[in-house]
Amino acid sequence: MKTVAQILKTKQNQAVYTISPGAKVLDAVRMMADKSVGALLVVEQETIVGIVTERDYARKMILMGRSSTDTFVRDIMTSSVMYVRLDDTNEQCMALMTENRLRHLPILDDGKLIGIISIGDLVKDIISEQQFIIQQLEHYIMGRPAL
Question: How far apart are the C-alpha atoms of 100 and 112, rounded to whole Å?
């Protein structure tokens, strides 16, 4: 079972994209599109005050008929942000995401934002881990040395 620290090291793009609560929603959507991410952490004076996701946009903007150019990020962001630490495991992350219907978890180390992990990152890691175990079992069954 891998830790968040190990999973974070395998991510190709470890950048964390943030936006101010006073930014317009259109700027947030543009940034998500430009960076090919589904969420931005909302940060004010180096403190996480929320998260804004594509889901927030769909449910709190589109369905409510709001204008992206007139609405602030603070008006649609999710304020209660759950996070994980470097020593948390992939299983703990999956449980947290499943129980709370989350797709993104910020990673904090001593209160400092150092990364973000998505459900896709966890699924990729779990698949990789399972493939490794299968290979090891195949080598064992065939009588060949393990890799």
Answer: 23
- pLDDT tens for the chain, 147 residues: list them: 899 999 999 888 889 999 999 999 999 999 999 999 999 999 999 899 999 999 999 999 888 889 999 999 999 999 999 999 999 999 999 999 999 999 999 999 998 999 999 999 998 888 888 888 888 888 888 877 665
- Angle of helix 119-142 relative to helix 90-100, nearest 10 degrees, comes to 140
Half-sphere exposure of 6 (CA within 13 A, CB side): 13
CATH pick for 4-142 out of 1.10.10.1020, 3.90.400.10, 2.30.170.40, 3.10.580.10: 3.10.580.10
